[in-house]
Amino acid sequence: MKHLRHLLWLLLPFTLQAQNYKPTWESIDSRPVPAWFENAKFGIFIHWGVYSVPAWSPKGTYSEWYQHWLQNKKIFGNNNPSPTAVFDHHNKVWGKDFSYYQFADHFKVEDYDPDAWAKLFERSGAKYIVLTSKHHDGFALWPSKEASKAFGRPWNAMESAAKRDVLGDLTTAVKKTDLKMGFYYSLYEWYNPLYVSKQYDKYVNEHMLPQMKELVNRYEPDIVWTDGEWDHSDTLWKSREFLAWLYNESPVKDKVAVNDRWGKGIRQKHGGYYTTEYEVGKKYDRPWEECRGMGFSFGYNRNEDVEDYNSTQSLIYLLVDIVSSGGNLLLDIGPDAHGKIPPIMQERLLEIGKWLDVNGEAIYNTRAWKTHVQWSEGRQDWKPASGMVSGEALLKQTVNPDPGFAVKELFFTRNGSTVYAIAPQLPEGKFLIKGLQPSSRTTVSMLGLRQPLTYKKVKDGIEVTVPKLSIREVPCEHAFAFKVTYITE
């Protein structure tokens, strides 16, 4: 049997390559999400485009929706924003005759250094990148002829003020590293003339699909991350046909990962991995990913202040909570129009990377254990306010609970027969890890601490003793990973 499994393992790549996927959800959904995606756990989202020039929206809203807020005088998001807030701001700062399309003349990216970006991403501990190739305004970050043709003006980064293939340059820089490179792509465009006039077949066949296939053929992404799908069915978008081409014929057919945003009502039902957005507490039986900004906007919003950004502590807890539930965190940054990543965003990434340098073993290549978390005594039904949920909500569930509510004492991940128990607070003296059954070979250690820890088996699990540590001996900040080897079921 052992030899048979080995033979099947050797044949697996050829089996996958020989698979012919049909344009049906049954066939497309049968394709496994690539293992590299499940192993990666942490990625960086980048929202960057001409909306990065005004870089403004009310707190609690998406600044990358600037054009839509401006022209519709209607805004959704947290904090009950005034419907005309962006319209009023635009007229005051830019003037009522200044068109959104003129922002392309100011998107010069003169400080853009893709190699420096790639080095920052490496240091953050992220394993993949997803860049907005084109958001809902239709502006393309690569030399897309379809983009300029559709709008009758230079409407891509190469033909407008930037004068460079900003997407291609970052792709080249990232591919010098071990990180994976992916692209976000909006299926719909708010004000594309074909789309606005409801010439949907022409829009899809002559604009959208040629752009998507050009991105894949020219840049060979590891991820195709679609969005803007919600107005129409996957049939109108020809999503199943595109995915069949992607999986059968494209140059990335054997490695590419895709998300679940392929048509109205499709999310968390079909496609590749499932996605959530500004949510907490989710868990699925399929690989999944939570995406969010460090504040409440994906695009850079200069209206946000330091208190609007998630702390490093809450972002680390968010990452740990998601990974223990079997998911990935896709954490967004929004560079400015000059090509600068705001220092507060750089700082957050570097601090997460510093934590992962010590504790990455408990994150990367792991899977969810049978138990997601260990709760303290108390109520477990605390819920954050409705709307886009801040990552700071995790502080309420860990270190700063409301009276009467329980906290998550430990988060669990697993790699083979090793279980990792990640504590939001450093235990002092003896503490209980519930549900673990040690074997005769079991050892317990804290990642970053050289000395092994003593433990004993008790009725509910194992009792671990943590020695008193000096400040110098504590290996990291915010959360502490305990490694328990050779557990038995």
Automatic annotation (TrEMBL):
The keyword Signal applies. Residues 1-18 form the signal peptide. The record marks 291 as: May be important for catalysis. Residues 408-485 form the Alpha-L-fucosidase C-terminal domain. InterPro entries: FUC_metazoa-typ (IPR016286), Fucosidase_C (IPR031919), GH (IPR017853), Glyco_hydro_29 (IPR000933), Glyco_hydro_29_N (IPR057739), Glyco_hydro_b (IPR013780). SUPFAM superfamilies: (Trans)glycosidases. The keyword Hydrolase applies. It comes from the Bacteria. Residues 16-361 form the Glycoside hydrolase family 29 N-terminal domain. Keywords: Glycosidase, Hydrolase, Signal. Its EC number is 3.2.1.51. GO terms for biological process: fucose metabolic process; glycoside catabolic process. One of its GO terms (cellular component) is lysosome. One of its GO terms (molecular function) is alpha-L-fucosidase activity. Belongs to the glycosyl hydrolase 29 family. Alpha-L-fucosidase is responsible for hydrolyzing the alpha-1,6-linked fucose joined to the reducing-end N-acetylglucosamine of the carbohydrate moieties of glycoproteins. This is alpha-L-fucosidase. It comes from Chitinophaga cymbidii.
